[in-house]
Write a structure and sequence with these properties.
DNA polymerase, domain 1; seven-stranded mixed sheet; hydrolase activity; CbbY-like; PGP-like_dom2
Length: about 300
């Protein structure tokens, strides 16, 4: 299985439903944050030392933060299963992963090819237009998975290019606010270069000022902190002056291990994860103002 390239961009400013895998204070008084009554940390009475370090950089993860991508990936997989008429015994209809099942699959298994490989091993290798009878050799099974993944990837790109996909609420507003205040912005992602570029070009439309590929320098994926440590060095900003926006506990662990504070904007598939190490968590970034995040960071660093 190929290693996923880690990329950092500096920005200018079913039948499957029958299967199952075995298995804080609020911000209600802060301007722009009133609707987050269940958020983890309060900015009601922040006492910020004048010597506390101010935020100098705001760093975003991509998938799950800039866009809620997992359901788009799920749709693309289901379209691939339909296109190749992928049928797992004993079902006569093409495989279809529902949202609930896919969330569990994503959280417990992970990447694309491993998802399919796990599923087919667990529930039976399928017949398809590629193989009339279920493949039996490792070579044929690898060919099936590679073909499905390649087709799915192209379909996912088509979905992103369609103009029907919107960034998650509040993302663009927060980026614009950070840019206007002179903060450095970065997007750090373990996704492939092509996937992240496509996402940013179609959802954000921001021109890249600097493009830095760190895949050769960062050998470990999140939760290893290497990507964030590298980002800090390239940005020329101390880890303590960086604030990371993540959506998962794996990303949170990477940020905190790098010595950075992190806020969470969770998705439906990560909502139940343990975010106790985050300085705040939100269902999305709608109404989240930069000033409130700066105060949260200053308080966290001052501890």
């Amino acid at each position: 299985m190929a290693t996923t390239t880690t990329t950092m961009f500096l920005l200018r400013p079913p039948n499957a439903t029958r299967h199952r895998i075995p298995t804080h204070q609020n911000l209600s008084t802060t301007p722009g944050l009133r609707r987050f009554s269940s958020c983890s940390f309060s900015t009601r009475s922040l006492s910020v030392s004048a010597n506390s370090r101010a935020m100098e950089a705001l760093i975003f993860d991509c998938d799950g933060v800039i866009l809620e991508s997992e359901d788009l990936h799920r749709q693309a997989y289901n379209l691939a299963f339909e296109h190749f008429n992928v049928r797992c015994p004993p079902f006569s209809e093409p495989l279809n992963w529902d949202t609930e099942f896919y969330d569990v699959l994503q959280n417990q298994v992970g990447g694309g090819k491993p998802k399919m490989r796990w599923y087919f091993k667990e529930f039976g290798w399928p017949s398809s237009t590629l193989f009339v009878t279920p493949p039996e050799s490792d070579i044929d099974r690898a060919k099936l998975i590679d073909t499905l993944q390649d087709w799915k990837t192209e379909k996912y790109k088509d979905i992103l290019k369609s103009g029907s996909v919107e960034p998650r609420p509040g993302v663009l507003q927060l980026m614009d606010e950070a840019k206007a205040s002179g903060k450095k912005l970065a997007v750090c992602s373990a996704a492939t270069k092509s996937s992240v570029v496509l996402c940013l070009e179609n959802l954000i439309g921001m021109v890249f000022r600097t493009l830095c590929f760190v895949g050769d320098d960062v050998k470990e994926k999140k939760p290893d902190p290497s990507i964030y440590i590298t980002a800090s060095k390239i940005l020329g900003v101390s880890e303590k002056a960086c604030l990371v926006v993540e959506d998962s506990v794996i990303g949170l662990q990477a940020a905190t291990k790098a010595g950075m504070s992190c806020v969470i904007t969770y998705t439906s598939s990560t909502a139940n994860q343990d975010f106790s190490d985050a300085i705040a968590k939100f269902p999305d970034l709608n109404g989240v103002r930069l000033k409130a995040l700066e105060e949260l960071l200053q308080k966290a660093v001052a501890k």
